[in-house]
Structures are given as structure tokens and as C-alpha cells.
């Protein structure tokens, strides 16, 4: 019972207010017996019918004057009676009848296994990134979709982001005599995600890529893509490369 019904009086009340109307609405589908339905309806009652649950609650809820010992005792007694009827009803509902909505409403795992939708749609969205250099070899990366460029969030069907990165030594271009040209960095390109890349994955659209101390004062190239860790065949295309210095 403790796993199904909240322990507090207020918690039980919230549960009862949700479960009883739901049973009344779905009693035919749930195959609730007439006897149990009538007993539940009689206990639940309405605000105008004395000594029914809704009537006593309307008095009990008034902290100033309604919560006398007699009212408090009757309210708790009615809660327990309704819970016992609910347990009888739950026990009588055939396993094959239970739906996911029933289980959520009643906070029960009864019935057939919960329906799980297996994604089948390939992730086609590209990843758009914004980077912030945090220092000490750390880069904060925020990933965005085309549908929302203002808030970092995972793409539909994705449960994470995969990064393929490569750290390169910064080298300067040289003149014809082999002398370094100040401020002229020799361009290096990471052609694709498997071009010497180290792959790591993250479960959120905002994360910190932590590089080794040796990467500081070098440059990093990286590709990113949306992934589905349980169905890797649905992983999205690589986006990139993005190149940034490492501080």
C-alpha cells in the first residue's frame, strides 16, 4: 500500500481526488463491479451530502475552525475506507486491461509490460555549436538545433551528443628562408570525424570538453553529432569542423 498511496493526509487526498473520478469515467473499460463502484461512490459522495468524503473534506480543509478532533478522525477514516475499496478494484482489474495511463494514474505497475516506443526515424538534424574558453584546457560547448537557436537542447530522438576532436600543435607559417612569420598560423584541417579524432559523448546539449594539460596553447578541431545511444543506427550526421585555440 505504501508504494501506491502517499503517506501524508494531503498526499492521500490528492491521490483520491485523481483516482476516484478516473474510475467513474472508465469503470466499464476497467470492468469495475457494480458493488465496488457503488461502494466507492457512496463513500466519495459530494459536498452537500453529510458524512461523505467530499463533505467532510470541505469542513476539514478550514484550518481555523473545521479541523476539530471529530472531523479530523472522520476524514482520516473515510480516506482509509476509500483506499481499501480502491485496492479491491485494482485487484479485480484484469491484467490485459491495464494501460500505461491507468498505471500512471493509480501509481501501480500492475498489468502487462509498459509500452515502450522504439524510435525508428533517422536523426538528420545538424548540430550548431557555440564555444566558451574556460581556461585550464576546458572548453564549454553549447549545442543547438535549427528549430531553436536560442536555447541549447537535444534534437528529437537524440539522447546525447558525440564529439570527435583532435588537438594540433600551433605552428607558424614560414618565409622562403625558413623563418617563422609572426602571427601567421599554419592552417591545419581535420577532414572528417575519423581523421585522428578522439571520440567522447555527453548526455546533455551543454557540456565541458576537458582536454589534457598538454593541449593548452595548442588548437583543437572537433566534429559533433546528435546520437541515440540505444539505437546507434539512428545517429545523426557529423557537423564541423570547428577549430578553436586552447587556453
Task: Explain what this protein looks like in three dimensions.
The chain is α+β, with helices and mostly antiparallel strands and 247 residues long. The protein is 28% helix and 24% strand. The protein is built from five helices and nine strands. Strands 6-3-8-9 form a four-stranded antiparallel sheet, with no helix packed on it. Strands 1-2-7 form a three-stranded antiparallel sheet, with no helix packed on it. Strands 4-5 form a two-stranded antiparallel sheet. Helix 1 packs across helix 4, helix 2 packs antiparallel against helix 4 (69-92) and helix 3 (53-60) runs antiparallel to helix 4. The two termini are 57 Å apart. The model has no long low-confidence stretch (mean pLDDT 90).
Order of helices and strands: HHHHHEEEEEEEEE
Largest sheet: 4 strands, antiparallel
Name the structural class. alpha+beta
Q: How are strands sequenced across the largest beta sheet? A: 6-3-8-9
What ranges have pLDDT less than 50 throughout 5 or more consecutive residues? none
End-to-end separation in angstroms reads 57 Å
How big a fraction of the residues is strand? 15-25%
Number of strands: 9
* Helix amount: 25-40%
Amino acid at each position: 500500500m505504501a508504494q501506491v498511496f502517499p503517506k501524508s493526509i494531503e498526499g492521500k487526498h490528492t491521490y483520491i481526488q485523481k483516482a476516484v473520478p478516473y474510475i467513474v469515467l472508465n469503470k466499464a473499460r476497467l470492468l469495475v463491479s457494480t458493488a465496488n463502484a457503488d461502494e466507492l461512490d457512496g463513500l466519495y459522495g459530494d459536498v452537500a451530502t453529510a458524512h461523505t468524503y467530499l463533505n467532510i473534506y470541505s469542513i476539514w480543509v478550514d484550518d481555523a475552525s473545521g479541523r476539530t478532533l471529530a472531523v479530523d478522525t472522520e476524514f482520516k477514516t473515510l480516506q482509509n475506507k476509500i483506499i481499501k475499496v480502491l485496492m479491491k478494484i485494482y485487484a479485480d482489474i484484469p491484467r490485459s486491461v491495464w494501460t500505461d495511463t491507468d498505471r500512471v494514474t493509480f501509481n501501480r505497475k500492475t498489468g502487462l509490460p509498459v509500452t515502450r516506443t522504439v524510435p525508428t526515424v533517422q536523426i538528420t538534424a545538424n548540430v550548431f555549436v557555440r564555444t566558451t574558453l574556460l581556461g585550464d584546457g576546458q572548453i564549454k560547448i553549447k549545442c543547438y538545433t535549427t528549430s531553436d537557436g536560442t536555447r541549447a537542447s537535444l534534437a528529437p530522438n537524440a539522447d546525447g551528443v558525440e564529439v570527435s576532436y583532435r588537438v594540433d600543435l600551433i605552428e607558424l607559417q614560414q618565409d622562403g628562408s625558413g623563418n617563422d612569420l609572426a602571427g601567421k598560423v599554419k592552417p591545419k584541417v581535420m577532414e572528417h570525424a575519423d581523421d585522428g579524432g578522439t571520440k567522447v559523448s555527453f548526455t546533455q546539449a551543454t557540456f565541458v570538453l576537458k582536454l589534457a594539460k598538454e593541449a593548452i596553447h595548442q588548437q583543437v578541431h572537433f566534429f559533433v553529432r546528435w546520437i541515440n545511444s540505444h539505437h546507434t543506427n539512428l545517429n545523426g550526421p557529423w557537423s564541423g569542423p570547428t577549430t578553436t585555440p586552447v587556453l
